[in-house]
Structure formats: C-alpha cells, structure tokens
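Tutorial, part two.
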Amino acid sequence: MKNIYSVLKRPCLTEKANLQQEVSGKVVFQVHPKANKIEIKKAVETMFNVKVDDVRTAKIHGKKKRVGKVVGFTGDWKKAYVTLSEGKINFTDEL
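Running the prediction step on this input gives:
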C-alpha cells in the first residue's frame, strides 16, 4: 500500500469494540484486505497522533444473505485491533 489514507476504511463502532476501548485501550478498525500490520500502525499513528503499542488482525468471512429467492454473500473484510500505549481516540465526540 502506498497511500496511508487508503489503509484505514472505517472504525468499528460496536458494543464489544467500545467496551475494549474503555477497558484495555484497544481501538478496532476495518482496514484494507491487503494491508499489513506495519502499514496499519503507521496509518493510525499519522492520522490520529497517538502511539501504537500492538496491532492484531483478523479476516472476517462474508455472511450468507437472502433477498427473495436470490441467495448471495456479503463481502469478506479485514479487521484490525490496535492497542494504544499513549493517547486516546474518541469517535463519539461531536465536531
């Protein structure tokens, strides 16, 4: 990946992700499927001005969805669990 702004797609704002952020300082992002841990770390540190301690990734397989008689699948995607050592990222603040 050449551009750091194409690595992070969006934050995962689920109840489990919010609980992990409060308890252990982990932030969860949906990332580009071909991004590696080093690129994810650089992107988070650059975009949010925080210090990253650890990055863990997981590939999420698409679910089966049905609309009428047609059966299809949602797309596969990649999730990154980023542990922060310094700083904090808050997505729920209003601008």
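Helices lie at 15-24, 37-48. In part three we will examine how such features are distributed along the chain.
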